Amino acid sequence: xxxxxxxxxxxxxxxxxxxxxxxxxxxxxxxxxxxxxxxxxxxxxxxxxxxxxxxxxxxxxxxxxxxxxxxxxxxxxxxxxxxxxxxxxxxxxxxxxxxxxxxxxxxxxxxxxxxxxxxxxxxxxxxxxxxxxxxxxxxxxxxx
Length: 144
What we know:
This protein has 6 helices and 5 strands, in the order ββαβαβαβααα. With 144 residues, it is α/β, with parallel strands linked by helices. The protein is globular, with a radius of gyration of 14 Å.
């Protein structure tokens, strides 16, 4: 069962998706799937190639920006920025629970100058708490 949670009009997150969820993503109007889960993190979960192949079969773009236990980096934010700038429609990002995908989006958007409070509210509306990330988001927003 698909669990797509919108954070904005053009970006949603989900816990680990299945190959079958890719068709549901296509039906829901997504143009791209972004995998934020490193391959091998959970061997029984569909790996990146499984989702990439299913996305290709559905005509969806696919990208991988793995976020492991080391946390987030500017190159990861740069990669999401570039993907969002080039996206031809709404983006669905996933990881184990959707938290890393939410955090990556929030950091990227804060760095771009979006209102940090509004980003926190959007995440809360989708069931994700950004309070622990708020100092980093504020710092990124201050760099603008």
